[in-house]
Design brief:
Blueprint (H helix, E strand, L loop, with lengths): L1 E8 L3 H12 L1 H8 L1 E9 L17 E2 L2 H6 L5 E4 L5 H12 L3 E4 L2 H18 L3 E2 L10 H8 L5 E7 L2 H13 L3 H10 L8 H4 L2 H15 L9 E2 L7 H9 L2 E12 L2 E12 L11 E8 L3 E8 L3 H21 L27 E11 L4 H11 L4 E6 L6 E8 L2 E2 H12 L4 E10 L4
Parallel strand pairs: 1-2, 1-4, 2-3, 4-5, 5-6, 8-10, 10-17
Antiparallel strand pairs: 7-9, 7-11, 9-10, 11-12, 13-15, 13-16, 13-17, 14-15
Helix pairs in contact: 1-12, 2-12, 4-5, 5-10, 7-8, 13-14
This protein binds NADP nicotinamide-adenine-dinucleotide phosphate and L-homoserine (HSE).
Length: 435
Amino acid sequence: MSRIGIGLLGCGVVGSGLARNLSRHAEDIASRCGAELEIRKIAVRDISKARAIPQNLSALLTENVSEVIESDEVDIVVELLGGEGVALNAIRQAMKAGKHIVTANKLLLARHGEEIFREAEKCGVEIGIEASVAGAVPVIRTLRESIAGGEVKSVFGIINGTANYILSKMTESNTEFAEALREAQELGYAEADPAFDVEGVDTAHKIAILASLAFGSPVDFDKIYVEGITRLKPEDFSFAGQFGKVIKLLAIARLVDGSLDVRVHPAMIPCGEPLARIDGVTNAVLLEVSHAGSLMLVGAGAGGDETSSAVISDLADIARNIISGSVGRVSPTGFSPEKRKTVPMKPIEEIDNRYYLRFHVEDRPGVLSRMTGILGAHMISVESAIQRNAQKSVVPLVIITHSAEEENIRSAVAEIDDLETTREKTLIIRLENGE
Ligand code: NAP
Ligand code: HSE
């Protein structure tokens, strides 16, 4: 049986999960892909750290990334370092050396994906990126290969396990934000910088990758609207429940009038929608595809073992292509390079939505009518309003609007926030159907 050499860059949460699972499931993997996958070298930052990997692999550790890449024993370089600088240089160096690549690095792919994909094609090497989005869920392969006959209309995703874990905890048990985040970190779900998880940046990295594969277009990461979950309060979850909705951090990519609407923000979705039932670290991606209809992929979105499952699926794929002499069978984006087009991106200000507006205002006569007057002047029609009778001088007041343009909502809210009766910056949550 053929043997394929793997050079591992990084042996943290995902890298050590990969090392354990390649060893545990070696026979299964070999019988599926027709080759034995062997880790030959492992680069880490600190060789003296204790690691949960099979003992025989400890002798393969080095602190020299280049030593792994340039080793003649390594056919596939698996980049699990994270971050931008060292990881990007390592991938460039490996491709130049003719090594195939597998990476889980969504930050890198969101910012440098186009360059990396082009270079992989130029160098005649494979690039596996399944682990970069939604952990164990095979969404990349679905977009690259399984729906080749359909036109993607929209992608809706819950694709950050940490944020979904926190939101689920806050919905179910009123857990404080900080405590829920700490739990997610202890379970190995959070990024090295958890701000990426809770500020929506990690979700944006992932939707940039999905949108670029779904719509066959580069996606300018800096043009994606990104808003996180840090401003949500327990009262928002309770109001959402009153409206029969839940709050989720949604990633959205849609084609609207020939432009790409790509954004990340908390959204209220009806309790009955499939995405509303995705809880904890679970991820889900809902695709709307021309004649295929709705497809929803659900599964573990983070964690060492779960993410390593996606890495192994890429390794098996590349091993099969090496053995059968079909390297480059599927292009990195799933589109022929000459058929890729650049679709313009639509600014969020031009998007229409219904909105949940949560104000903190003084509870006295005339306040509500001034606020609705401002909304009306900006062409915003009120669908319903609730004020909590907290018997305090400042109370939360919630308004649900009919469909309105984002730009009008922002101008109206800015005006209301300037009133002397408004005591806190207003929270805006978009209402989505999750479909
Ligand atoms: P991690 O636990 O922080 O591990 C990073 C590893 O890279 C560590 O072993 C570290 O060495 C090594 N490393 C970092 N900089 C290095 C350098 N300059 N030279 C040599 N080694 C270096 O990260 P992780 O959670 O496994 O994530 C790895 C990648 O997978 C990231 O791109 C992340 O976004 C992605 N990802 C993670 C998950 C998840 O659930 N955790 C899921 C999907 C994707 P030391 O061990 O010596 O510090
Ligand atoms: N921090 C990420 C998450 C890891 O929580 O989803 C998986 O990409």
